[in-house]
Design a protein that fits this description.
Layout lengths: L1 H8 L3 H14 L4 H14 L2 H14 L4 H17 L3 H13 L2
Helix pairs in contact: 1-2, 2-3, 3-4, 3-5, 4-5, 5-6
Amino acid sequence: MDDARTDAAAGRLGNAAAQLERALRIEPRNPRLWQELARVRLKQGDYMQVEGLAARSNSWARDDPALRAENWRLIARSREARGDEAGAKAALEAAERQR
């Protein structure tokens, strides 16, 4: 994940995504890897994938309300980018309920 973050910060989003996808083949139940891939997809503008990846992260993040809340914020950002203001608002409300 560190290498993927380094690549993402340097703008090598394709490399970052590939590294995270490889890591997910090894640890498919790791919610942080799913969230990190959602972040990369958000930077790439692949907003529909962001929602699915963040939801997958939430499905594995049972005892981590902070992680779930951040996933909902990623979903809100993807919805906002697509012009879905009502959906973004609902996602932000879901993030607040995680506390």
